[in-house]
Amino acid sequence: MATTPADSGAGSATPGHKPPGYLHQKDAHLKRLRRIEGQVRGLQRLVESDTYCIDVLTQVSAATRALESFALGLLDEHLAHCVSEAVANGDQDAQEKVKEASAAIARLVRS
Amino acid sequence: MATTPADSGAGSATPGHKPPGYLHQKDAHLKRLRRIEGQVRGLQRLVESDTYCIDVLTQVSAATRALESFALGLLDEHLAHCVSEAVANGDQDAQEKVKEASAAIARLVRS
Amino acid sequence: MATTPADSGAGSATPGHKPPGYLHQKDAHLKRLRRIEGQVRGLQRLVESDTYCIDVLTQVSAATRALESFALGLLDEHLAHCVSEAVANGDQDAQEKVKEASAAIARLVRS
Amino acid sequence: MATTPADSGAGSATPGHKPPGYLHQKDAHLKRLRRIEGQVRGLQRLVESDTYCIDVLTQVSAATRALESFALGLLDEHLAHCVSEAVANGDQDAQEKVKEASAAIARLVRS
């Protein structure tokens, strides 16, 4: 990430086309996902080296929780956005977004 | 809320002080909870009559899912309400409600 | 519970037909389920008195967690029993019980 | 598995040091984990291309479920192994493994 100056370059090519806050969040999301990818690769190394099953399961739970946290962060952002949109564009649009968000929450709770 | 003094009139003294839609929902919620209460009492009967453990577990999963569905229904209503409130009262208030709702979602996902 | 001597009477009619440890567990299970039943009745009171949605959700999460803990306790006992049975009755029988238990665990994890 | 001599060829540095059945499972586990790694990389592409939040969440739920299925498969194997061990080595050892497995199940159910 320190080694990807292109990232900020990409953002700055079209100044103002995205709020800086959003760009920052996007980088944070990608960082989190790269860490989760690392956890899943770590699981492969554990299986390859015949690590004791229970220890593998502990690491699976950690990866699952990391994915859930990522989802909860994304959802929080999305709901905040829905509300701002409701203020700007009116109730009707936003109520449909809420329906959609509720379905996504149900999938998360049940997965 | 600040604009609905009838609310503080509270209770049966002011019949019809709540929209029928809301009342209907409340009855539906109570009905669901009574059914879940029945499921939990059913679990007690299973344990009392020494029902096979795996069959008890199947019924526990059913009760857990019923509680989750109840929570998801409540949450959906709440989010819809947040959005309406955002339109009526402005973004700031509603954003705080979103924070609160996100915390509740996290508790649900992790429980 | 202090007022149900019949409980121990029921056990003592056929002395030795169940290990005391089991009877003790059964009482503990019923106690837990009665507490969960109380939690679900508490939820009904919250809904009846128009408690703020987020506070209701917090109590739903608590009841869900209590049900899960009950299930996990039951499962732990069951697995211990499977293993003892494997020693007494041979591998084949017990492997079938393991299949059954795994299916129950999957239902719990996914509910 | 008895019919896949190639499998033992894979482990050929120390031929026969692991039962072919186990090797087969290990390959299946690694395959699943590689697919999950692909899902997590897919999530990064979705975030990078500013995919709509709800669609990202759907894919997160899919990855979470895949991790859970992997864990459930591992656990099922482990429990079957515990039971075989109980028959071979006695109840005491196996009961400790059950305690350990129950703790792992609790982490899964609560994650």
TrEMBL record, chains A, B, C, D:
Residues 1-24 are annotated as: Disordered. Gene3D superfamilies: Metal-sensitive repressor, helix protomer. It holds the Pfam family Trns_repr_metal. GO terms for cellular component: cytoplasm; protein-DNA complex. GO terms for molecular function: DNA-binding transcription repressor activity; metal ion binding; transcription cis-regulatory region binding. It is found in: Cytoplasm. The keyword Acetylation does not apply. Signal peptide: none annotated. Keywords: Copper, Cytoplasm, DNA-binding, Metal-binding, Repressor, Transcription, Transcription regulation. Transmembrane segments: none annotated. InterPro entries: Metal_Tscrpt_repr (IPR003735), Metal_Tscrpt_repr_sf (IPR038390). It comes from the Bacteria. Belongs to the CsoR family. This is DNA-binding FrmR family transcriptional regulator.
